[in-house]
Design a protein that fits this description.
CATH class: Mainly Alpha
Number of domains: 1
CATH architecture: Up-down Bundle
Oligomer: single chain
Distance between the termini: 48 Å
Radius of gyration: 22 Å
CATH topology: Amino acid/polyamine transporter I
Bound molecules: 4-fluoro-L-phenylalanine
Helix content: over 70%
Strand content: under 5%
Length: 477
């Protein structure tokens, strides 16, 4: 089988379009919802520094590798891996990398859509001015209670969650069915800049809160004990969580970026485009932290409030600032849009593969994939209410209080994505012929850059991922 020269699914109209789409995939709930609450849960600064190291030493090299694979294979990750393994005379088993990506994509979308549904649910809440009362409440405690109650009322109601989850999936299907230029590209073109501007407005607000510097200190003061110990007990998973978050945030390890690379115009430079995406993604996460933690400390909230953190902090800001209801409404609309531009990349690998089999149209493939993710998503919907007591792995100490949602999140973010990334690094740097890899980087003017990248991907990146895994299973303890 010879490699296709162009993708049958179309191509991005320009290099900028690819950057926007890949940034659209990377920037999402992971930056604004997950990064702050994980940072809060794992004690701040040390988590942030490990996260940033993982982004630079593991994430960036793997993103370049994924884009390169896609650009060479020009098809869905399953077929790309098959074709590239064949090209090098290696076993078809490498196709499994594509398959594990498809499965991870479904699992992630299943809970991603539920959380994005929360963002949707907050749109009418903000628009109706529900949170303006916080500025009249007498104490910080009363404010904290109010936002807490509102959040719990939402997640405790399975039918409401189900309705928003369904709405999110339906719109996702509509966007993906539109195809590369029609649907995906149009959606991200204006949304990313708008989100960025609104985040800057919010940073301005955070700077006006009394505890802005406490928030900054929390995020950047490196105290490893806080990452490694919780309530006096050693925890193995802090570093793994930071690495998993780097993969999740950059959309790596499951073929999303690979399939986007397949739509990249032939002459576009891999190194420059990926660096732009990584910088933008990291900036958004840091900005989100700089907004949320000052609000946490200024209102007597707890940084380790968990999955509800963003939904309990930002409404306070919007309740207090001038034109808050307007800004708040726009913010949650943009958050939902950012989630959509990530969601579409979560099912694109599966949709592309189904279309390539020749048995499905883009529309039928998308509907099928969307329905499957919707169905699995029910587990997450119910994890917050009627199934909140179901803890399938409660016999193991580290998992004893994990609900179905927690487990799906853990399995995908901390295990499937980093493992996917590990095998991508091994495939590109150890299996593929160096000459072929180098050819794909021809349009990058910087040869030294190529050598540094190749070295990282061959040695440091796999070693780093391996060490984090070993550390987690307690080999070095
Ligand atoms: N990167 C997205 C976010 O940070 O919200 C989530 C995501 C998208 C993860 C695509 C994985 C993926 F393949």
């Amino acid at each position: 089988m010879s490699l296709p020269k162009t993708s049958i699914h179309g191509e991005w109209s320009s290099r900028l379009a690819f950057i926007l789409a890949a940034t659209g995939s990377a920037v999402g709930l992971g930056n604004i919802w997950k990064f702050p609450y994980m940072t809060g849960e794992y004690g701040g600064g040390a988590f942030v520094i490990v996260y940033l190291l993982c982004i630079a030493l593991i994430g960036l090299p793997i993103m370049m590798a994924e884009v390169m694979l896609g650009k060479r294979g020009r098809s869905s990750p399953i077929n790309t891996m098959q074709a590239l393994a064949q090209e090098t005379g290696r076993s078809q088993i490498w196709q499994l990398l594509g398959w594990s990506g498809v499965i991870a994509g479904f699992l992630i979308l299943s809970f991603y859509s539920v959380i994005a549904g929360w963002a949707l649910a907050y749109v009418p809440r903000l628009a109706s001015g529900m949170f303006t009362v916080v500025s009249d409440l007498p104490t910080a405690n009363a404010v904290a209670d109010f936002v807490d109650t509102q959040f719990n009322a939402l997640v405790g109601d399975p039918l409401r969650l189900l309705a928003w989850h369904t709405a999110f999936i339906i719109v996702t299907i509509t966007m993906v069915a539109g195809g590369v230029q029609g649907g995906l590209e149009r959606a991200v073109r204006w949304m990313m800049p708008a989100l960025f501007i609104l985040l800057l407005v919010l940073v301005g607000y955070a700077m006006s809160t009394p505890k802005f510097m406490d928030g900054v200190h929390f995020m950047f003061n490196i105290d490893f004990d806080k990452l490694l110990y919780s309530k006096g007990e050693f925890r193995y998973d802090g570093i793994l969580a930071a690495m998993g978050q780097a993969f999740f945030s950059l959309s790596l390890g499951m073929g999303s970026i690979m399939v986007y690379g397949a739509y990249l115009p032939k002459q576009a430079s891999i190194a420059q485009t990926t660096t732009a995406v990584v910088v933008a993604d990291t900036l958004v996460a840091i900005l989100a932290g700089l907004i949320i933690f000052p609000i946490v400390f200024s209102n007597g909230l707890q940084p380790d409030a968990g999955v509800g953190l963003v939904f309990k902090t930002l409404p306070i800001a919007f309740g207090q600032m001038p034109f808050g209801s307007f800004f708040g409404t726009v913010f949650f609309v943009l958050l939902a849009l950012a989630a959509w531009s990530s969601a579409i990349s979560l099912i694109e690998p599966a949709v592309a593969w189904l279309v390539e089999t020749g048995k499905f149209t883009r529309l039928s493939a998308t509907i099928g994939c969307g329905l499957a993710a919707w169905l699995v998503g029910l587990a997450t919907v119910f994890s917050f209410n009627i199934w909140s007591d179901i803890k399938p792995l409660s016999q193991f100490a580290s998992f004893e209080d994990k609900t179905l949602f927690d487990l799906i999140d853990y399995l995908t973010t901390n295990i499937m994505l980093p493992l996917g990334g590990l095998f991508i690094a091994i495939f590109v740097a150890w299996i593929m012929k160096r000459q072929i890899v180098s050819d794909e980087f021809k349009s990058s003017p910087n040869r030294l850059g190529f050598q540094v990248w190749y070295f990282l991907l061959r040695y440091l990146t796999p070693l780093g991922i391996g060490l984090v895994f070993l550390n987690t299973i307690g080999v070095f303890s």
